[in-house]
Write a structure and sequence with these properties.
Length: 408
C-alpha cells in the first residue's frame, strides 16, 4: 500500500471512525468477559488457584501473539489483520462459557488471548498509519475509545448478569461486535491508507540504524512503566481504600471508577492538549504531575485527598501509553508496535504480584509508592526519547521520517 494515493479528507474521516470503532470493540469484548468471571468460576467449580492458572491462557496467548502480529501486519496489512482478529475475538467470547472444568476453560481462553493480542497490535499499527495521514496526534483519542468500549461492555454486562447466564450474555455480545466489525471493516477497507513513512535503515549509518532501535526500545519501556502504573491502580486502589482507609466497598468502587474515568477524559482531550502544548508538557510534565498524585493517593490518610490524588494521577498518566505506542510504531512500524504492546502488557501482568509482595513486607500504602517511581521513569525516558529524535546528526531529520506530531 506504500504507493497508494493519499486519502481525501472525507475518506480520512471515515477511516478515523472505523479505527475508533475497532478500538472500542476490543474494550467492549474484554470488559464484557471480565464481569462474568465470578459466574464462570462457579460454573467450572474452580478454586482461586486453578482459576488463576486458567486465566493465564488469555495473558500467555496474548503475549505470544503480540510478538508475531507485527510480522503478520507487514505481510498481509494492518487493516486486514485488524478485521480478522476482531472477528476471531468476537467469536472467542462464547467457547469459555461452554466449559465445565478449569482445564477446558484455560484451553478455550487461549483462543480469546490470540484474538486479543492480535487486535491490540494490529489496530495500533492502523492508528500509526492514520496519524501520519491526518498529521494530528490522535492516538490518545483512539485509546479513549477503548476505555469507552470497556465502560459500555462492563455496564451492559452488569445489567445482563442479573438475568442472563454467561453463555446467553456472550450470545448477545458476539453479534453486536460482529455487526460493528462488519461496519467498521467496510469503512476501513473502502479508502486508501498508505503506510506511514518510516526510517530507511539502508539509507542511514549503522549507528543511525541502532539509534532507531534505541528509540523503539526506550518507547517500549515507557509503555511498560505506564501500563504497570495503570494495572497497579486498577488492581490495588479499591483494596487500599477499603482495608487501609476503612471505607466501604461503594467508596472503593468509586475509587476504581475515578481511575477509569480520568484516564478516559485525559485521552479524549489529549489530542488538543498535545497540539496546543506539545510532547514535553503533556507527556513528560504529565508523568511528573501524575507521580505527585500517586504519592498523595498512596500516603494520604484523608479520603478526599486520596481522590484528589487519583484524579491527578489519572489525568497525568492518560497520554503516556498512547504516545509511547505512537512513537514505537512511527519509528519501528508494526514490529515496533508489537514490542511496545508486549512490554506494556507485561507491565500490566507484573503490577499485581509485585505490589502484593511489597505489601507483604512494607504494607500496601508504601508498596503503592512504586507507581510514582514508575511514572518518574516514564517521564524521564520520554524526555530522553525526544532528545534522541532531535539531537543526533546520524538520524534522519523529522521531515524525512513521518513521526507523529506529539514527538515533534
Amino acid at each position: 500500500m506504500s504507493n497508494t494515493s493519499p486519502p481525501a479528507p472525507e475518506q480520512l474521516a471515515r477511516l478515523r471512525v472505523a479505527a475508533t470503532l475497532f478500538f472500542g470493540i476490543g474494550g467492549f469484548l474484554f470488559a464484557g468477559w471480565s464481569v462474568r468471571i465470578p459466574a464462570i468460576k462457579e460454573q467450572v467449580q474452580a478454586s482461586p488457584g486453578s482459576l488463576g492458572l486458567a486465566l493465564l491462557g488469555i495473558s500467555g496467548a496474548a503475549v505470544v501473539t503480540m510478538m508475531v502480529t507485527g510480522t503478520m501486519c507487514r505481510l498481509w496489512g494492518s487493516r486486514q489483520v485488524t478485521i480478522a482478529s476482531a472477528v476471531l475475538l468476537s467469536l472467542a467470547v462464547v467457547p469459555p462459557t461452554l466449559t465445565h472444568s478449569p482445564l477446558t476453560l484455560g484451553l478455550t481462553l487461549l483462543i480469546f488471548g490470540i484474538g486479543y493480542g492480535a487486535i491490540d497490535v494490529a489496530v495500533n499499527s492502523v492508528a500509526v498509519d492514520l496519524i501520519a495521514a491526518i498529521k494530528r496526534p490522535i492516538m490518545s483519542g483512539l485509546h479513549a475509545a477503548n476505555s469507552v468500549g470497556s465502560l459500555i461492555g462492563a455496564g451492559l454486562g452488569a445489567v445482563l448478569a442479573i438475568r442472563l447466564s454467561p453463555l446467553a450474555h456472550m450470545l448477545v455480545a458476539m453479534p453486536i461486535s460482529l455487526i460493528a466489525t462488519a461496519w467498521a471493516g467496510r469503512m476501513l477497507m473502502a479508502a486508501p491508507l498508505p503506510r506511514a513513512k518510516r526510517p530507511d535503515h539502508g539509507g542511514v549509518s549503522l549507528r543511525g540504524g541502532r539509534r532507531f532501535g534505541v528509540i523503539v526500545g526506550l518507547a517500549s519501556v515507557v509503555a511498560l512503566c505506564a501500563a504497570y502504573s495503570q494495572g497497579a491502580m486498577d488492581n490495588w486502589v479499591p483494596l487500599h481504600i477499603e482495608t487501609d482507609l476503612g471505607h466501604n466497598s461503594a467508596v472503593a468502587g468509586a475509587g476504581y471508577a475515578t481511575v477509569a474515568g480520568t484516564l478516559t477524559i485525559g485521552r479524549i482531550v489529549g489530542v488538543r492538549l498535545l497540539e496546543r502544548f506539545g510532547h514535553v508538557v503533556v507527556v513528560v510534565g504529565g508523568g511528573l504531575v501524575a507521580a505527585c498524585g500517586a504519592l498523595l493517593m498512596a500516603l494520604s490518610p484523608v479520603i478526599w485527598l486520596v481522590f484528589v490524588g487519583l484524579v491527578v494521577t489519572g489525568l497525568g498518566l492518560s497520554n503516556i501509553f498512547p504516545s509511547a505506542l505512537a512513537l514505537a510504531g512511527s519509528t519501528g512500524g508494526p514490529n515496533g508496535i508489537a514490542i511496545a504492546s508486549t512490554l506494556g502488557y507485561g507491565g500490566i501482568l507484573l503490577a499485581p504480584p509485585t505490589i502484593g509482595f511489597l505489601a507483604d513486607s512494607y504494607g500496601l500504602p508504601r508498596a503503592l509508592t512504586i507507581i510514582a517511581a514508575m511514572l518518574i521513569v516514564a517521564a524521564a525516558l520520554s524526555f530522553v526519547v525526544r532528545r534522541e529524535l532531535h539531537g543526533t546528526s546520524t538520524a534522519p531529520s523529522p521531515d524525512a521520517v513521518q513521526y507523529p506530531e506529539e514527538v515533534r
